[in-house]
Amino acid sequence: MVRFGGVTAVGGVSFDVAERQICGLIGPNGAGKTTLFNVISGIYRPQEGQVRFAGTVTTGMPRHRMAPLGLGRTFQNLALFKSMTVRENILAGAHSAGSAGFLANALRLPRARAEEAAADRRARELIHLLQLDAVADKPVVDLPFGTQKRVEMARALISQPKLLLLDEPAGGLNHGEVDELAELFQHVRRSFDLAILLVEHHMSLVMRVSDKVVALDFGKKIADGTPDEVRSSPEVIRAYLGDGHAEAAHAA
Amino acid sequence: MSAIQDAPPLAAAAPRVSTARRGVWLVLGLAVALAPLWLLESFHLFQLTMAVIMSLAVLGLNIVTGYNGQISLGHGAFFAIGAYVTAILMAQADWSFYATLPFAAAVCGMVGYAVGLPALRLGGLYLALVTFSLAVAVPQLLKHRALEDWTGGVQGLFLMKPEPPAWLTARVAITPDQFMYLVALVVAALCYLLAWNLIRGRIGRALMATRDHPTAAEAMGMDIAALKTRAFAVSAMITGVAGALSAAAVEFVAPDSFTFLLSISLFVGMVVGGVASILGSVFGGLFVLFVPNIAESISRAAPGVIYGIILIVFLFALPEGVAGLVRRVLARLGGRSH
Ligand SMILES: Nc1ncnc2c1ncn2[C@@H]1O[C@H](COP(=O)(O)OP(=O)(O)O)[C@@H](O)[C@H]1O
Ligand SMILES: [Mg+2]
């Protein structure tokens, strides 16, 4: 459970994401999806409850320990390293995959070189996969929102996470781009051997790619199951219609 | 096995082109660095030696403030500590200059690490004030009665610059000043190389990432506390080595050579040269040393005013420092050749 002052942002929510599963997390604005993400990735410490990841309880762990365990994430409102190029941002994501420290890097010991070469190679692959070739060495701040989202995704993928948390990856994309994104998720899951927890407003996208969907409203879980089950759940319909959300059209 | 691990090994074609270009730059750089040995007489060569040393000190500051975003207004303190470690060991214990260098680096690294610890909780303007007080306190400590036997108190300490070795004097005619210039150049070049290696790799990216977006940096697995304290240590180490070189070049240390003004000069050098730029630190050092002299030669009555005017002109004309200008020029040249 997480409270901000008097507001209980998330409470009593419990669900599992299986290996290699794409799990959609839906809910109206303010439902607590981002808060839940921040709990899972260790940014917020919940007042109650715990998170278990790959067999270990991770609640209360130092934040930088999550990535080495195999947790990758993107941010709803972009959290790129602004002074760096696309490639450098992606390489920064490889930090948890390496271990060469100050001395090994300053002296360019073989270990540091090998790590750097491996990271370079993987960055190249991801730049290609996410169609960032044309902008690879451009400063990341100069790029459109949708492209920056792809950079964040590449930065999360380069450390080869077991679980990838994506917070509204389709935000700011047009219809064609959303279709491409859906294909990309399938491709990523197939070739990277990972599970994805996907927060998305874009209901049709979530329903199309997810194996399982969890619905939140006012910080509580109101439904979970297959996309069809969740789509037809009365609570979910009520949450969206009651809120007067445009997405209700997609949900119904 | 993921697709990414199965990737074919990368062809090494791209780096080969830049190796040739890098060779050209290296030869050019060497020529520019060594030419003063023949072109400048003693006093100006000494000034240039000091400029090389200042460049190294600015490089140290740039690691922690430029690349890691932790503002330090107190790097003059590390410079002073490095200088005194070398001076004390040489004057009081008869150590050779070279043996004192790693020692000065180690002492400054430890003090830097210790300063980095409170820096973790403070940050921003508060950190600036803490480092400011360090810069104010160190010269007073150096004068203090309790340390007088070691530091020589207000009088300071005299020492000798390293002699050119016999194998060198047997082959070429080289004055002690020329030799000191070479020593400063070699030590500085070595530090620049190590810093360059550090910055362009995993750790450099982590330093910049924690500066740009700490939350995202942690999500990438970066241990902010460890990075920040180590950045402080490395930074203090480099500036401390510069201090050690200056003690030998000047052949004298005294508390009043390391006032708060020195810390500010280093900061100015970093900004004018280029924040978070290795190359910029070179220009920063040149600015720190030569611009006050130029100001003095323009007006003996009010050199501070002239210095201020030159500084403002620089900041307006080169908002990203000299390094930013160099980058733009190179980008334009590169663009034309394509
Ligand atoms: N840092 C915060 N401080 C105070 N309240 C917050 C904070 N973050 C989120 N909240 C509140 O918690 C609730 C859930 O927000 P959030 O997790 O961002 O929802 P969602 O991502 O589903 O739109 C909202 O009522 C929001 O106002
Ligand atoms: Mg949100």
SSE topology:
The complex is a heterodimer of chains A (252) and B (338).
Chain A: E1 2-4, E2 7-10, E3 22-26, H1 33-40, E4 52-53, E5 56-57, H2 66-69, E6 71-73, H3 86-93, H4 102-106, H5 110-129, H6 145-157, E7 163-167, H7 175-192, E8 195-199, H8 203-209, E9 212-217, E10 220-225, H9 227-231, H10 234-242, H11 248-251
Parallel strand pairs in A: 3-8, 3-9, 6-7, 7-8
Antiparallel strand pairs in A: 1-2, 4-5, 9-10
Helix pairs in contact in A: 3-6
Chain B: H1 13-34, H2 36-39, H3 42-67, H4 75-93, H5 97-122, H6 124-143, H7 148-151, E1 157-158, H8 166-169, H9 176-200, H10 202-212, H11 214-219, H12 224-250, E2 252-253, H13 260-273, H14 278-298, H15 303-317, H16 321-337
Antiparallel strand pairs in B: 1-2
Bound molecules: adenosine-5'-diphosphate and magnesium ion (MG).
Residues 33-34, 76 of chain A line the site of magnesium ion (MG).
Structure overview:
The complex is a heterodimer of chains A (252) and B (338). Chain A has helices spanning 33-40, 66-69, 86-93, 102-106, 110-129, 145-157, 175-192, 203-209, 227-231, 234-242, 248-251; strands at 2-4, 7-10, 22-26, 52-53, 56-57, 71-73, 163-167, 195-199, 212-217, 220-225. Chain A is an alpha/beta fold and 252 residues long. Chain A folds into two domains: 9-70 and 162-179 and 202-252, P-loop containing nucleotide triphosphate hydrolases (Rossmann fold); 82-159, no CATH class. Chain A has a six-stranded mixed sheet, with helices on both faces. A two-stranded antiparallel sheet of chain A has the order 1-2. In chain A, β1 (2-4) and β2 (7-10) form a beta hairpin. Chain A is globular, with a radius of gyration of 19 Å. Chain A starts with a strand and ends with a helix. Chain B has 16 helices and two strands. Chain B has a domain at 41-259. Mean pLDDT of chain B is 91; it is low at 1-14. In chain B, 46% of the residues are buried. Chain B has helices at 13-34, 36-39, 42-67, 75-93, 97-122, 124-143, 148-151, 166-169, 176-200, 202-212, 214-219, 224-250, 260-273, 278-298, 303-317, 321-337; strands at 157-158, 252-253. Chains A and B meet through α2, α3, α4 and α5 of A and α9, α10, α11 and α12 of B. Bound molecules: adenosine-5'-diphosphate and magnesium ion. The site of adenosine-5'-diphosphate has 11 residues of chain A, from β2 and α1. The site of magnesium ion has 3 residues of chain A, from α1.
